[in-house]
Amino acid sequence: MGRYRIEGGYPLKGTLTIRGSKNGILPVLAAVMLTEGETILHQCPFIADVFLTMEVLEQLGCRVKWQGRTVTIDSQNCISTAIDSKSVQKMRSSILFMGVLLGRCREAKIGYPGGCEIGMRPIDLHLKAFRKMGVKIKEEKGLLCCDGSRIVGKKINLDFPSVGATENCMLLAAKAKGHTTIYNAACEPEIVELQTFLNKCGAKVKGAGTDCIHIEGVKKLHGTEYSIAPDRIEAGTFLCGAAITKGEIQLKNVCPNAMRQVLLRLGEAGCVIKEGKEEIYLKAPEKILPVSKIHTGPYPGFPTDMQPQFMTVLTLAGGTSIISETVFEARFKHIGELCRMGADIAVEGQTAIIKGVKKLHGAYVSGKDLRGGAALILAGLAAEGETVVENACYVQRGYEQIEKSLFSLGAKIFLE
Ligand code: EPZ
Fold first, then answer.
1. pTM of the model
2. How many angstroms does the Cα of residue 327 sit away from the middle of ligand 1?
3. Nearest CA, atom 13, ligand 1
4. What is the arithmetic mean of pLDDT over 298-313?
5. Which residue from 123, 247, 400, 406 could staple onto 411, CB 3.0 to 4.6 Å apart?
6. Is 271 a catalytic site residue?
7. How confident is the model at residue 120 (pLDDT cuts 50, 70, 90)?
8. Whose CA is nearest to atom 7 of ligand 1?
9. What is the rounded distance in angstroms from the CA atom of residue 203 to the CA atom of residue 295?
């Protein structure tokens, strides 16, 4: 499983270039299967979820070729319309191939994604929207057998601005007959990225970034060349690392506007932040200031994917902070581990009350999910003594060699 061994007490200092976004590239890779031709993607991060998605593309008939961070994918042939349960269980975003296979082949057989470490992760919103668009869905032995022979564009209203459901509807509608409108759509930057990519392939999508997206179905989509946008959550994670270690870092290849809430909250915590067009500079305060009520929420609210990392910063604040997690029902699993390192955090339902302490001490802790594991690494960077963070595999799903990036900024961290 691998583990990180960290000697705390070294401030992060220096410059780091941020890589392509995990949550940006995964829907784009699914969208490649909608096209018939060759697509070249630049800035692809070397992370487990990307490698898993490439395996799915190859199972479906694509030819995939890596050259550094550039991947060339030939999606001319589609030899299967089934995604096995193993792939979907291992990686929830495989559910996006449901919209893709129905869009391209008018049929799909896909395993039901289970819950995961941060919650039940149902797909009822996906299924409700697909049925509205005429997809016949039968569940047989945990497999969703879908008949899309009669799909047609419709007005879809999402009960919740789900990122995945928005993306799946865009992928299904891109080649469905007629016009689809998605109301109460997610507004995340990754939705805009998917629209940009689809339109470069010949689709007709507009409105991404707002809560109303319009899609005019087309018959065929072609390949294209595209560069994945930087990972706003990876960037935020490293900024939190500098904040908690009293460091000073410069990030390159970032999009400050996509990180507005995180930057504002880090400023409230006492950090000095300077923004360039594609750069962010952060200098940490001597003492972190407590931050009043933070609610995670759909974009442009404070991102749930930054909740564990920001909470870790607040464990050393000079006062009490409050964070409410409104998106996922089980995203507080890092709190018990942080408390074993000396943090003082109480939980009331979906709200955490973080009383700042003078210091954290090293401990043997266990990552329970991707962002929680990253948060424990940040705690280890600031803690006195040695910390071991178990279950590196969770962190490696979304961060490319985080130990090398942190080491290059002066951290004493090793992957075992
Ligand atoms: C995406 O997950 C991201 N993953 C998540 O990032 C991110 O936390 C999440 O969006 C919210 O921003 C990828 O992009 C690969 P949702 P997704 O559908 O699409 C409920 C990370 O750490 N819901 O917006 O699965 C759901 O249970 C990961 O990088 C339903 O009830 O998120 C959750 O409570 C973690 N029914 C809420 O909506 C549905 O049909 C938000 O889920 C779908 C979702």
1. 0.97
2. 8
3. 23
4. 98
5. 406
6. no
7. confident
8. 305
9. 36
